[in-house]
Design goal:
By secondary structure, the chain is α/β, with parallel strands linked by helices. It is built from 13 helices and 7 strands.
Length: 331
């Protein structure tokens, strides 16, 4: 069993979680040791934060924030489309491999974990050392829920399920969750274009001055820009293309695109002036040293303009060194 190929939307989810829980997310793409390469999507350790959350931030986190508090250690595995039986098996295996490797003192840490899949998938009583796994999936068929004996979660309500308690696994069917401010962040991860747009707009509208909300909107914009760059070079899920085309009409997205364009123009302008400065200084004072070039590269276009104007009055390279703050060797 190898790591599943990561779709663009999976990468988007991995970018969102460290924004939401910056001090608790221990890793995205955490490797677990077996003869084959396996990765846990998101690994979360609950830490006691002496500073209580801003009430607005706690409200924005909503159900997702409460889900991440049900156990000291949480694994989050995300699937953009339908959940399949083999995905659940893979999640169980990765968690068990992690637990055995962390807690079995007989294991030689320098070598691969000698654990076969049948042993790893054997149910183990949930303990503080054994992580609880939330599987976030866009869709899940009723037959799979019956087959795995999934039961409705007594805490989180409809479309959130628990498997056998000994497995320590829960399933969240993102696209079936009822939309509310409490589920808004979860719905943002659903990959349904209409739902993503609604969550995007509500986060932007309800929390305009909350840094976390602005970070989330920024991550959505960067994801959209990333997808736009892939459409000519990769096969993208039609839902992702649809999401991209819808978000492109949003003012917050258009503002970000204009900022990127302005940044690109500024970089191009600065690069042009850098080349001019290097040529002029080389002509006047000899070959530009790596130290001087490093200083020039760190300067803005306006700084380079100032240097070029001042250099017209310099008769020796000592003035250049003094301007750049580079010590000169004594004669």
């Amino acid at each position: 069993m190898t790591a599943q190929p990561h779709q663009p939307h999976d990468k988007f989810v991995k970018a969102i979680f460290p924004l939401l829980f910056p001090t608790q997310i221990a890793a995205t793409q955490r490797p677990v040791r077996l003869k084959e390469e396996l990765f846990i999507d998101i690994f979360y350790k609950s830490l006691t934060d002496p500073n209580p959350l801003n009430p607005q931030q706690e409200q924005l986190l909503g159900m997702l924030g409460r889900m991440m508090k049900i156990h000291p250690t949480i694994i989050v595995e995300h699937y953009s489309q339908y959940l399949k039986p083999e995905y659940i098996d893979s999640c169980t295996l990765r968690k068990q491999v992690y637990w055995y490797s962390e807690n079995d003192t007989r294991i030689d840490r320098s070598s691969d974990l000698r654990l076969d899949k049948s042993t790893a998938n054997k149910p183990t009583p949930l303990s503080p050392d054994m992580p609880f796994t939330w599987i976030l999936t866009a869709k899940c068929g009723d037959n799979l829920l019956l087959r795995t004996r999934a039961e409705p979660d007594p805490i989180f309500g409809k479309h959130v399920y628990r498997l056998d308690p000994q497995t320590g696994i829960g399933i969240v069917v993102l696209e079936k969750l009822a939309y509310s401010e409490d589920t808004m962040l979860l719905k943002l991860l659903s990959n349904n274009p209409d739902t993503v747009l609604r969550a995007y707009r509500d986060i932007d509208r309800l929390y305009p001055d909350l840094p976390l909300a602005n970070d989330i909107i920024g991550a959505c914009n960067e994801y959209c820009i990333h997808i736009q760059g892939l459409t000519t070079t990769a096969s993208i899920d039609p839902q992702e293309v649809s999401t991209m085309s819808i978000l492109q009409q949003e003012p917050a997205y258009q503002k970000r695109v204009k900022e990127l364009q302005a940044e690109g123009e500024a970089r191009g302008k600065a690069e042009g002036k850098l080349e001019t400065a290097k040529k002029l200084l080389s002509a006047r004072f000899g070959k530009v040293s790596p130290e001087i070039e490093a200083k020039l590269t760190s300067m803005t276009a306006d700084d380079l303009d100032d240097l070029l104007i001042r250099s017209l009055d310099w008769s020796t390279s000592n003035s250049l060194f003094e301007y750049l703050g580079i010590p000169t060797s004594p004669n």
